[in-house]
């Protein structure tokens, strides 16, 4: 260990323009630090993080033989890497550099200049005491498995999978439904270009199926995740579809042969607007095109009494009614979660009458109704078969609402415009849009809004109070009456319509919390997956090697989802092509001779980093999994666990430094 | 558990049939409530709008009295009293200045207390404490075929009460169903009855009354039931005048839900005060 008389510390304080110098008397701190023990040189500089600032440190290290560096500036989250690199470049071990945060922890949160300066001096003193005890440490390198797991096969997952597969990486794409395609597959057209959604999506779905680098597991779920960045072990459970996937060619003879002559059960794909049989494919372009037998509705599973006409009709013997869940275990280095969202349940807003009045639809239902391949082949009719003469589209159902969800779902204004256009095209009806604010930020979006205004669609600004069948005048008889305050003209209006469309917002998926726990990531307050930084790390999570893309991170439209999927793929590629990850050395380690084998640490570790050797009766820590939280160090009754950068000397000297002038 | 009873002015005057039927029904179910001794005005409506401070102070006195008399909960049938007492508790809980002043003023009369005693509406009591099963056991004359429009009014279920769904309340409908009646879907069930506007701005008030009666009738309702004395008064008292004014017969029975319960329980029209109603009394078979 370095003895005291050899320690030569350089102290550097940053003005950060006015950010620090505007509150803290930088010169006073510089002069004060110069008199502290071991300090050989004490300097200030306008921007320490700039090249000249860094060069200042490097020059001093070389010329003054410095062996400890303390930089008082901003948060280590921002510039610790910068100053560590500068230190290393001058030939000194980077862990001999200690940062003091006098910006976020001092100048930005205090107004009293004198006290803030005093606080800066205290923090600086603590660091100068601590750094004397620092030791040279090395970052460990761990290889990265080049294979990638993508969870969720909507447009985001498909995009990420194809990007990575085209880059030559092996991809596992896991989808919980029987087909990939997600919500986009259900849409008719996409805004603002009115491209046919299926036309642009299905080629990508086929490409996923055909790609030699992609293993597609539909009707499957991730059930267990172990390991760490670069080296995850993942268990995927494939739900039984009672069909041997390799044998099925998608001829669909079995569906024709089912003892149900007509579909009887609500089709998940058509959001209940059409009926399917117990043996079915979700839609004609389903990928993989493999039928699935629904255990809950199949007569054979319910009663055991069915001639199994479906199986008999299959000339490839693809049916297997004894199929069990199949568990696959894979090794991957990185994971992309693209698990999507769910739409707001409109029955949670009873004042809009969904579920009460047959002609109140959700926007997703209308997507299916206007779709040429939908349940009505694109004919939009009221439930009693009438052609709607007038249609009201209510925006922000389950969005921007204190009673339900506070957030703006971002896509509803645009898809409402799209639906208004399509409904007008299909029915010629008068269309009313009820909006709070029109939010059309995006390329070509505002222009699309203009186009709709010119098409003669009505726009009424106001949050709708209620939809009811309460008729006052004859015109209103037999209609749904939308009551709304028209805030443009300041009156309460009653608009009678034949059909109401509720533009439902986007919510975190039902399985978001389960996935969060499984992959050890965080969610923001409303339940969407939390990104590492809202601006600068939008697809990273706080768990290294786990990336997020698409609407699982927050409401977004197709272009944004695709962009994020590309970003997530690029981040995964960056890790894979680097080939290794460097692990912070601030990890804990166990001195085996001192360990009593009590296993307290094993249960305490939040990262499952500690294992117990049954033969040796000792615990040991997997450095790659350890996040350096220190819980085990504090918990160990035998004092057998130590942590790099946080050993007793370092901590006690820092405390002494901050307390004793 | 000691249940106190706060009648407020209405249940001793225009709404006395509400009190009479509530007591008759509770009596039949062997459920006792104790009228708060020496109670005073709840402070609602007019007082609340003219001087909120005084209104809250006098309302607090009732809470303090109920607590001192050993009550665990107060049953408050009038929707305005109910809302006024809940509002008072809410203000006391959330505003330190109000809390301090209320306790100071109460101390002048020798009163004190937490003022957090549970304030409960009889509807809440019947559905959530006594329970629908217990009600069902007392039904002797099921209201078979009777189409009932359940009217909640504006202040029974919001903004301070929590016992029912604000947007689509169900408790009255649930009671109607256990009594054997048919509960009509009625989107106007939380619409305002016009409150005191029937006397202060009669042309607006009567329009609001008419809309409710007309709509309930056009949906085929045999009777409207309410849980508020002012709603009952407004909907019942002007039916003849409204029918003339709007040239549409909107005459129909408007009863307290407790009267309907009593009928199903086999209580006599006299016990329930039905003989004193202004609207044509329900001839129940």
Task: Please sum up the structure shown.
The complex is a heterodimer of chains A (661) and B (285). Chain A is an alpha/beta fold and 661 residues long.
Written description of the protein model:
The complex is a heterodimer of chains A (about 650) and B (about 280). Chain A has about 650 residues and is an alpha/beta fold. Chain A folds into five domains: about 5-135, Rossmann fold (3-Layer(aba) Sandwich), CATH 3.40.50.960; about 140-240 and about 325-340 and about 510-580, FAD/NAD(P)-binding domain (3-Layer(bba) Sandwich); about 255-315, no CATH class; about 345-505, FAD/NAD(P)-binding domain (3-Layer(bba) Sandwich), CATH 3.50.50; about 585-645, Alpha-Beta Plaits (2-Layer Sandwich). Helices cover about 30% and strands about 25% of the residues of chain A. In chain A, β32 and β33 (about 620) form a beta hairpin. The longest helix of chain A is centred in the C-terminal third of the chain and has 21 residues, at about 560-580. Chain A is globular. The model of chain A has no long low-confidence stretch (mean pLDDT about 95). Chain B is α/β, with parallel strands linked by helices and about 280 residues long. Chain B has two domains: about 5-120, Glutathione S-transferase Yfyf (Class Pi), Chain A, domain 2; about 130-275, 3-Layer(aba) Sandwich (Rossmann fold). Helices cover about 45% and strands about 10% of the residues of chain B. Chain B contains twelve helices and eight strands. Chain B has a four-stranded parallel beta sheet. In chain B, α3 crosses α5 (about 95-110). The radius of gyration of chain B is 19 Å and the shape is globular. Chain B starts with a strand and ends in a 21-residue tail after the last helix. The model of chain B has no long low-confidence stretch (mean pLDDT about 95). Classes of the chains: A alpha/beta (about 650), B alpha/beta (about 280). The interface of A and B includes residues 349, 350, 356, 469 and 470 of A.
């Amino acid at each position: 260990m370095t003895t005291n008389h050899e320690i030569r510390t350089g102290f550097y304080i940053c003005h950060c323009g006015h950010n620090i110098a505007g509150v803290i008397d930088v010169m006073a701190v510089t002069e004060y630090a110069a008199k502290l023990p071991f300090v050989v040189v004490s300097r200030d500089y306008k921007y320490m993080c700039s090249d000249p600032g860094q060069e200042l440190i490097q020059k001093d290290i070389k010329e003054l033989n410095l062996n400890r560096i303390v930089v008082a500036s901003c948060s280590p989250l921002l510039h610790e890497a910068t100053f560590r690199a500068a230190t290393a470049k001058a030939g000194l071990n980077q862990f001999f550099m200690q940062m003091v945060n006098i910006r976020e922890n001092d100048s930005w949160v205090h107004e009293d200049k004198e006290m803030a300066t005093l606080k800066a001096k205290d923090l600086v003193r603590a660091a100068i005491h601590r750094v004397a005890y620092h030791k040279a440490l090395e970052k460990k390198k761990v290889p990265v498995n080049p294979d990638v797991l993508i969870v969720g096969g909507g447009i985001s997952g498909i995009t990420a999978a194809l990007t990575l597969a085209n880059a030559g990486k092996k991809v596992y794409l896991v989808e919980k439904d029987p087909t990939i395609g997600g919500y986009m597959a259900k849409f008719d057209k996409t805004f603002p270009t009115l491209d046919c959604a299926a036309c642009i999506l299905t080629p990508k779905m086929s490409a996923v199926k055909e790609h030699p680098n992609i293993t597609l597991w539909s009707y499957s779920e991730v059930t267990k995740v172990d390991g760490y960045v670069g080296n995850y072990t993942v268990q995927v459970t494939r739900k039984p579809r009672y069909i041997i996937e390799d044998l099925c060619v998608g001829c669909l003879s079995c569906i024709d042969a089912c003892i149900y002559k007509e579909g009887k059960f609500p089709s998940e794909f058509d959001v209940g607007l059409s009926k399917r049989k117990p043996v079915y494919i979700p839609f004609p372009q389903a990928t993989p095109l493999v039928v699935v037998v629904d255990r809950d509705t199949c007569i054979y599973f319910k009663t055991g009494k069915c001639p199994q006409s479906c199986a008999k009709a299959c000339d490839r013997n693809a049916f297997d009614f004894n199929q069990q869940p199949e568990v696959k275990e894979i090794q991957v280095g990185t994971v992309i979660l693209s698990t999507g969202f769910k739409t707001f349940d409109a029955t949670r807003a009873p004042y809009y009458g969904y579920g009460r009045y047959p002609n109140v639809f959700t926007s997703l239902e209308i997507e299916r109704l206007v779709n040429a391949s939908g349940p009505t082949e694109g004919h939009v009719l009221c439930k009693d078969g009438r052609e709607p003469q007038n249609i009201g589209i209510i925006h922000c159902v389950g969005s921007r609402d204190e009673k339900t969800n506070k957030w703006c779902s971002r896509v509803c204004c645009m898809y409402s415009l799209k639906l208004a256009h399509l409904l007008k095209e299909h029915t010629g009806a008068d269309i009313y849009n009820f909006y709070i604010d029109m939010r059309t930020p995006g390329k070509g979006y505002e222009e699309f809004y203009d186009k709709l205004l010119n098409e003669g669609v009505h726009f009424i600004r106001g949050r709708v109070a209620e939809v009811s069948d309460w008729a006052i005048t004859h015109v209103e008889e037999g209609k749904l009456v939308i009551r709304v305050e028209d805030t443009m003209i300041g009156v309460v209006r009653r608009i009678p319509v034949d059909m109401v469309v509720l533009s439902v917002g986007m919510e975190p998926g039902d399985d978001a919390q389960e996935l969060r726990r499984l992959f050890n990531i965080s969610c923001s307050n409303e339940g969407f997956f939390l990104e590492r930084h809202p601006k600068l790390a939008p697809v990273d999570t706080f768990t290294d090697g786990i990336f997020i893309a698409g609407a699982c991170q927050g409401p977004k439209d197709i272009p944004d989802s695709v962009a994020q999927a590309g970003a997530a793929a690029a981040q995964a590629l960056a890790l894979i092509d680097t080939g290794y990850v460097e692990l912070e050395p601030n990890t804990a380690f166990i001195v085996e001779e001192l360990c009593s084998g009590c296993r307290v640490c094993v249960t305490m570790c939040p990262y499952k980093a500690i294992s117990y050797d049954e033969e040796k009766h000792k615990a040991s820590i997997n450095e790659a999994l350890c996040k350096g939280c220190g819980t085990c160090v504090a918990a160990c009754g035998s004092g057998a666990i130590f942590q790099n950068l946080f050993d007793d000397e370092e901590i006690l000297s820092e405390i002494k430094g901050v307390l004793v002038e | 558990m000691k249940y106190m009873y706060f009648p407020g002015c209405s249940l001793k005057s225009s709404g006395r049939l509400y009190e009479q039927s509530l007591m008759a029904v509770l009596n039949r179910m062997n459920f006792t409530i104790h009228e708060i001794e020496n109670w005073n005005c709840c402070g609602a409506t007019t007082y609340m709008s003219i001087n909120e401070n005084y209104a809250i102070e006098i309302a607090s006195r009732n809470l303090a009295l109920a607590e001192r008399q050993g009550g665990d909960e107060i049953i408050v049938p009038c929707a305005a009293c109910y809302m006024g007492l809940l509002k008072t508790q809410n203000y006391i809980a959330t505003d330190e200045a109000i809390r301090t002043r209320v306790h100071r003023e109460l101390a002048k009369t020798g009163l004190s207390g937490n003022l957090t005693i549970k304030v409960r509406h009889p509807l809440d009591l019947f559905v959530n404490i006594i329970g629908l099963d217990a009600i069902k056991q007392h039904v002797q004359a099921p209201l078979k075929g009777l189409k009932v429009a359940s009217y909640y009014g504006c202040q029974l279920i919001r903004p301070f009460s929590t016992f029912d769904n604000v947007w689509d309340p169900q408790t009255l409908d649930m009671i109607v169903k256990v009594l054997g009646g048919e509960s009509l879907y009625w989107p106007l069930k939380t619409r305002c009855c016009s409150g005191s506007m029937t006397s202060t701005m009669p042309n607006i008030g009567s329009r609001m009354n008419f809309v409710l009666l007309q709509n309930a009738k056009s949906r085929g309702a045999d009777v409207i039931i309410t849980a508020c004395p002012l709603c009952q008064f407004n909907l019942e008292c002007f039916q003849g005048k409204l029918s003339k004014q709007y040239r549409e017969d909107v005459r129909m029975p408007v009863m307290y839900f407790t009267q309907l319960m009593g009928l199903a329980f086999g209580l006599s029209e006299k016990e329930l005060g039905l003989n004193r109603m202004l609207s044509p009394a329900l001839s129940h078979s």
